[in-house]
Specification:
2 domains; single chain; 7-stranded mixed sheet; 43% helix
Length: 275
């Protein structure tokens, strides 16, 4: 695989093609930005869109690079700055849930987590239609001490590992398909449905939940901070855990918006209408 310097040259080219030539999901991106930042002028949102596409093409090439990166490079570029916060839980053999959104390079998280925490890392993923890519993905993660588990087998995965000391890694800002079980939260000023899974399993197994705050520091480098949301999820009101996660992710997006997945149709559903 090419060195990062050359990969980012390719990324520069693909940014131009994606934004100016192909216009990949450009209408979706602009529409999402206008909904999230209605007070910004059109030219400001257009500038944010260009910055987003520069980031998006970087993440694509960074993800490809992930198949051949050394452990040392992974930890250096996707560094958890406070892994020791999990030590007390590991010492008493207590599993935890780490939750994040599609911000920064979330793909590297399934590799870096298993290399930097003592817990057994289990990362949930959406199965791919391409079986070859899926096998290559699983192989590259397993070399980094991370087990991949299909989101279709979430219940089985928690149940099978209930007696192990695990860090369950979850992405929780996808648009849910089951609106009846979703938590509706004002997110970026818009009523938004959130997946119920993180809160469901945290309550079911009484697991501490940490927000994984991903902070891009420079091109190809990210710092991750583990922030405790709750040590006792069952002491919170229904939906409060999800609300706190949403607020943390929202703050990160507002502070630096171009690193979130704006090309995802996040607001395609409402309470009375499903697309």
């Amino acid at each position: 695989m090419f060195p990062f310097r050359l990969l980012f040259l390719f990324s520069n080219l693909f940014y131009y093609l994606a934004f100016y030539v192909i216009g990949y999901r450009k209408k979706v991106v602009i529409s999402n930005l206008k909904k999230a930042f209605p007070n910004k002028k059109d030219d400001e949102n257009y500038t944010l869109a260009k910055q987003y596409y520069r980031y998006l093409t970087d993440v694509i090439f960074e993800s490809l690079k992930g198949f051949t990166m050394s452990r040392k490079s992974i930890v250096k570029r996707h560094c958890i700055i406070n892994p020791e916060i999990l030590n007390p839980y590991f010492e008493k053999k207590q599993s935890i849930i780490g939750v994040s959104g599609h911000y920064g390079n979330w793909e590297w998280g399934s590799m870096s987590g298993g290399l930097q925490v003592n817990h057994k890392a289990i990362a949930f993923y959406k199965p791919l239609t391409n079986k070859w890519i899926q096998q290559a993905l699983k192989k590259s993660r397993e070399k980094c001490n991370t087990t991949l588990a299909s989101i279709k087998e979430t219940f089985e995965t928690f149940q099978e590992n209930k007696d192990s000391t695990c860090a369950f890694l979850m992405i929780a800002d996808q648009s849910p398909t089951n609106l009846e079980k979703s938590y509706w939260i004002s997110f970026m000023g818009i009523e938004t449905p959130f997946l119920h899974g993180t809160e469901k399993y945290a309550r079911m197994y009484n697991l501490p939940v940490f927000y994984i705050d991903i902070k891009p520091t420079k091109r190809g480098y990210y710092d991750l901070e583990l922030i405790l949301i709750t040590s006792n999820p069952n002491e919170l009101k229904e939906g409060e855990l999800t609300e706190q996660f949403a607020r943390m992710l929202e703050k990160r997006i507002v502070d630096n918006p171009n690193y979130w997945l704006w090309s995802h149709r996040r607001w395609k559903r409402t309470r009375n209408r499903q697309v």
